[in-house]
Amino acid sequence: GSNPNMTRTPDCHFIAESRHNGTKLVVFAPDFNQVAKFADQWVPINAGQDCAFWMAVNHVILKEYYVDKETSKFAEYIKQFSDSAFLVELHPAANDGYRAGQMLRANRISEYADEENGDWKCLVMDDKSKRPRMLGGGSGHRWQTKKGHWNLKLEDPKNGEAVDPKLSVIAESEGTALVEIEEYDDERVALRGVPVRKIRTTDGKEVLVTTVFDLLLARCGVNRGLEGEYPADYD
After folding, report:
1. 3-state secondary structure of 54
2. Which of 8, 57, 206, 217 is buried most deeply by CB count within 10 Å?
3. pTM for this predicted structure
């Protein structure tokens, strides 16, 4: 997704050094460009095909290294260094499905109702306590009065307890919601099931939530046996 010797010249030497160490470099591009000449292999594609190719790559990674068999390094990395485990609120849509809304904010539940900048802190589902927990590192922690919580530690900054974020709520699912997924190739909307949990908020309402990762699996069409328009296989 970059043109190192054209737009990232300070980093370009890493390509040559990695190739000396045995790395193979493949460039997908419609033209034999400045970067392709550095490559071991140039794959000429039509303009725009790279997006479809990389979505297919994402599908394979998610299916073969998470759904079919869990790869610990993969799971550990995205738990700590991505937003994949954060809870997202689902809202009813016009066609009996649901739309993904905002990430569920920390001050929406009673445990964190008085949290400073609670609108700018998010929640995950903790695999240990089986309840929503807050992690540090949000912009609310960056600008709060007490310092030291703007980090990527897997712990609740309120009490320092360790948190093990769940990437998916499928194991403790309280149902399935059909979420609208835009299919850009034919301008239609598909409905794909995601596992959901019910969370009671401070206003007394019960909201449906899922994780960013569950939505990602649905977006990439990774079949986990849930209802909805999922492909049966790679073909």
Report:
1. helix
2. 217
3. 0.86
Q: What pLDDT band is residue 5 in, cutting at 50, 70 and 90? A: confident
CA neighbor of 182 nearest in space, from 136, 235, 229, 115: 229
Structure tokens that stand for 218 in this block: 């649905």
The DSSP bridge partners found for residue 105 are 122
Sheet holding 197-200, edge to edge: 188-195, 176-183, 98-103, 87-92, 206-211, 197-200
**Helix, strand and coil in the chain, % to nearest 5:** 30, 25, 45
Q: Where are the beta strands (DSSP E) in the chain?
A: 26-29, 41-44, 87-92, 98-103, 123-125, 132-134, 176-183, 188-195, 197-200, 206-211
Task: Single out the residue of 18, 9, 56, 55 nearest to residue 39, CA to CA.
Answer: 18
Encoded tokens for 12: 């370009």
